[in-house]
Structure formats: structure tokens, C-alpha cells
Specification:
Layout lengths: L4 E2 H7 L5 H10 L2 E3 L2 E2 L5 E2 L5 E3 L2 E3 L7 E6 L26 E3 L7 E7 L2 H8 L7 E7 L7 H7 L2 E2 L2 E2 L4 E6 L2 E6 L6 H8 L4 E9 L2 E2 L10 E3 L2 H4 L3
Parallel strand pairs: 9-15
Antiparallel strand pairs: 1-4, 2-3, 2-5, 5-6, 7-9, 7-17, 8-9, 10-14, 10-15, 11-12, 13-14, 15-16
Helix pairs in contact: 1-2
Enzyme class: isomerase
Catalytic activity: uridine(2604) in 23S rRNA = pseudouridine(2604) in 23S rRNA; uridine(35) in tRNA(Tyr) = pseudouridine(35) in tRNA(Tyr)
Protein name: Pseudouridine synthase
Length: about 230
Amino acid sequence: MNNKIRLAKYIAHAGVCSRKQASRLIDEGVVSVNNRPANHIDHVDDNDDIRVNNTRVQGKATRVYYAYHKPIGIDCKLNQHDPSSLIHHLPTNTRVYPIGRLDKDSRGLLILTNDGEFCNQLIHPDFHQPKRYLVTVDKPLDDDFCQKMAQGVPVNKQITLPCTVEKIAQCQFSIILKQGLNRQIRKMAHYCGYKVIDLYREQISDLNLATLNLPENSYLKINKFDILKN
């Protein structure tokens, strides 16, 4: 019986990254199988010598999940050579990575895990898991701002999906997104004539940072069912 599986799936199961990110690593040429450059069509098991950036990957990792209250100034890219990188603030020696990045100038809830399949379940467009943000802009919101944002505006050569937008103060609104384009909220607000001066992610799916009592730059080990109950 052949128990070999696709290489990207194996890397995800080993807790290195999500399956999608594993495919990118293969494209970048940093993955090898049995001392040769990897191919997307490779099928492997624990008997194969699989390496990512020259580090051996083997076996299914024990799944871990953390909530992290990210402060402004930390970059979610896991770059060992960048002193501002999240990699210098991780809570465990087990490899974990963020689900749904926040840009360096944003703050709030991040989920860190080594569960590639669960990562896919949270961020893949087919599953549409909501993320709620509180956003402060540089001037008072006009009467049609929320409706305009909610209906969708051009970002990265596409119209954003319909979303829920609610004014909560003169210069502040909440927005619930089910997609995650690069710097999406900042670009949406800019299109409508506003500059974001504070962006705070409060909630991912069922996990709300406000209920965790978690100070900035702190972690809490959680159960994945706290994140996604349905």
C-alpha cells in the first residue's frame, strides 16, 4: 500500500506552513526531495529526505494554536534577519506562523499555528470566515462613507466583496471582512478620501480579542474550537 502524499500537503502536515505557502516555497526553489530540487508533483512519505531551506522536515507535528495581541511595529513576515520580524517574538520553539497577516502599522489579533489544514480553513475564500476591525481615520466620516465601503470599491484592480461597515464615532468605523487583500482596508478608505491612522483587528471568526484579556505583545495558548466553532 502506497501512503505517499503530495509534497505541499506533507510540508503543511509537518507544521512548516500552509499548503498554499508550501507551494510557493517549491516555486522559490528552497525545497528539496532526496537531494534534488523538488517538484509540485512529488509524492513523499517519512522515508524521503525532504528539506526546506536546508532544514529537514519529517513527521506530523503536534498541532498548537496561540492568540497573539500584535502591537504596531512588528512585521508578520518571518524573516530571521529583520529585527522587527514576528519570528523574534514567537511563543514556542515549535514552528508556528500567522494566519491572516496584519501589516506592520496595524495592531490586534493574530492567530499563530502550525496546522496548515486549519489555516486553509480560516483564510480560503471558499470558507468565508469573518474578521472584524476597528478603524480610525483622519477626519469625520461623511454620510455615505459606510454605504460606499460596504458595497465594494476598487482595490488591486478588482472590486472588493460586499462587507459590513458601521460608523461608531465621528472618525471611527467598524468593518467585517470575508476576504484579505493586501492592505485592503487602508486602500478602501483611501479610495473614499480618507487616511487610516489606526487599524485594530478585534475578531477572527469566533475568537474576540476583547474577551481574552490579553495585553499587547502577549500570547495565549488556545484550542482551535475557540476560533472556529461551526
